[in-house]
Design a protein that fits this description.
homodimer; TIM Barrel
């Protein structure tokens, strides 16, 4: 993977610490990330499943290469642009896990024509026929997974729905390889006890296994039974019948995952570096130069037991200031204030001081930035910059 | 401005209509935009003020050139990256309207060193001294506006606060040209009647004028008295003493501005093109391939009288489907559903059908995209692509 070296852009000597970077900037603590990656690998080692990391959070070949230091392995993506990007860097086993728009079938199959084992996801006969037609037009043999609905969260067919057989038949009739079934327990993001999360994981497993059994009864092979979300991946107790687990945000974690109980605050590997630009002591406010453009508008913790507003404020070494949050955000301004009811003092952060903000939702916050500024633990040294991709 | 022609990227012949673009994509209706631009110009013509459009929404030289078809004029920006971008395209009268981080002073002054009349904004003696020191180090004479707080929304000094005099003195002592005062009635976004908006505009005006008088009493010239927000710009009844108005989102408008009462739905010039990828008729859901990555997480209408969820769904010609909203959004999925309590039928939108989504907040939604696909009115023809800039 010679690309690694080429893509690692050393930061210029004049901006080699967190005290010197332009603000706002996205910071990635590589030590925390590697610990998070090792944790899930370790947990899944006791199950007979493979891990297919979802790269919609990281969108970075450098992060992907830390997931697979030896050689590229299976990955999940959320856009065809991600599939093309990771394929161009040597990844050849890719599941595009968003229901296929018929107009995207040709573009997806052009990747297969280049030797990339790209699998698409669908749940209607119309999509199956569009995929088959595109395959015939391009002379490429498509591969698909049928999306299964395990918790009413979004798309997919419920196990037992005869439409599963209809879609499978349309795939077979159209010369599409039916690889298996895929489901995602999206409702697990609303839970917060180990038992409830284990139950969500069991629901996810049971739905996928039941749908696979249904297909096998109809004579389909269905080799892949794919499940996953970061919460269920960390709390599943039984994965019998499952062949692969997908998870994405686990590499970085965030305040939503902390609120669910999947990680500690000091596991969160991404943060936004910001500078103090004003103070309103009479209101208990400190103003910073990071607003929603840098943090995103995501307020995922608003519906959790502890609302972290627009993020938890830390010092440059990544230690949270007690009760200090980004209380409000406009486009390029954030307002720091103590959590309601706090008896802590407002930290003495003068104009020009720098802080790091832990985000609600790593996927949304990282998407606001061009690159990760990579640090290790409490060291202020920015070792390298890892670019991110975006778009569709 | 030869850059215009260079930057207009004709879309390729294979993707020249809204039926053919990749989805999700950002669409800009140039007819609506030009009508919105003309409307505010017309309204302000009766006042003795100049307009300094805020380009934090558009972030596009092509849009800037529709504001100034003859020659570049005064603009406002929210980041130094915007200032550098617009300066590189010939704009030389720029106000950077976010409180200056001391570390950014040198970068800002390098633009002044290149002949760009860049004015910065500040409200503390520390910032004034940092700016003066950077000016001395670079041999460049800085120019600044003092930020005034007119409604307790964010930063700035209240009129009458003796700190205004302290900051002005620090600027004068440091050789910085004090251009005047600047305020922004951010609280106007929470209002919704013409009288309340006119009152907010009067508060904005009165605060800025009072602060300017305070400075003049101390012997400062204070030629610039700058106010503005899109709501107050459209509802101000008296601008005596004001020299310039700033507004940004008025070029595009959005559902938040519609909820405030500043525009009609069919004034909203930006939308997100999406494709139907699934249906759940038993739940009243239609799934599309645009989630929060394409729409942003902004839910600005959640606190308004009418909550538009993640956006209003329109047909390809830009006509809203009655009561159809993007009810939920995950990263790359949107769920269309009827507004709660609606007696409308769910439109018959099959897999593969295309829709356009009007966003809560144009600034946030546009920021998720690389470029505007430019159409005119109900025509499906994409005339050109206008790139957007981003970052800090």
């Amino acid at each position: 993977m010679t690309e690694t070296t080429l893509l690692e852009q050393p930061v210029d000597a004049a901006a080699a610490t967190l005290g010197e970077l332009e603000t706002p900037s996205l910071v990635l603590d590589r030590d925390r990330m590697e610990r998070n990656i090792a944790r899930l690998r370790g947990r899944l080692a006791k199950f007979d499943v493979s891990l297919r990391p979802h790269l919609k959070t990281a969108k970075s070949i450098d992060v992907a290469q830390r997931l697979y230091p030896e050689a590229p392995g299976p990955i999940t993506v959320s856009t065809l642009a991600e599939a093309e990007y990771f394929a161009s860097h040597g990844f050849s086993d890719i599941t595009y896990a968003v229901g296929l728009a018929p107009d995207k079938a040709e573009r997806a199959l052009r990747l297969r024509g280049r030797g990339v084992d790209l699998k698409v996801v669908l749940d209607t006969v119309d999509q199956a026929r569009a995929l088959a037609a595109a395959g015939a037009a391009l002379g490429v043999s498509p591969a698909a997974l049928i999306e299964i609905d395990s918790d009413g969260h979004r798309g997919g067919l419920a196990p037992g729905d005869p439409a599963i057989g209809d879609v499978a038949a349309a795939l077979r009739d159209g010369g599409v390889e039916l690889m298996g079934v895929l489901t995602h327990a999206g409702e697990s993001y609303g839970l917060r006890t180990p038992d409830a999360l284990a139950e969500a994981a069991e629901g996810e497993r049971a739905a996928a296994v039941a749908a696979a059994a249904q297909l096998r009864r109809d004579g389909h092979e269905c080799p892949v039974v794919s499940v996953g979300s970061t919460p269920t991946a960390h709390f599943a107790r039984n994965l019998d019948g499952v062949t692969e687990m997908r998870a994405g945000v686990y590499m970085f974690f965030d305040l939503v995952m902390h609120g669910i109980g999947v990680c500690r605050l000091d596991d969160i590997a991404v943060s936004v570096l910001a500078t103090v630009i004003g103070r309103k002591p009479e209101k208990g406010w400190i103003l910073i130069d990071a607003g929603w453009m840098a943090l995103s508008r995501d307020r995922g913790t608003a519906s959790q037991a502890v609302d972290q507003r627009y993020g938890v404020v830390c010092d440059l070494e990544g230690r949270p200031y007690p009760d200090l949050l980004v209380a409000e955000a406009s486009q390029e301004h954030g307002i720091l204030a103590l959590r309601a009811g706090s008896d802590q003092p407002l930290p003495d952060l003068p104009v020009g001081a720098r802080v790091r903000i832990l985000p609600n939702h790593a996927c949304a916050t990282a998407a606001q930035h061009e690159a990760y500024n990579v640090v290790r633990g409490a060291s202020p040294v920015v070792e390298t910059r890892w670019p991110r991709m975006r778009g569709w």
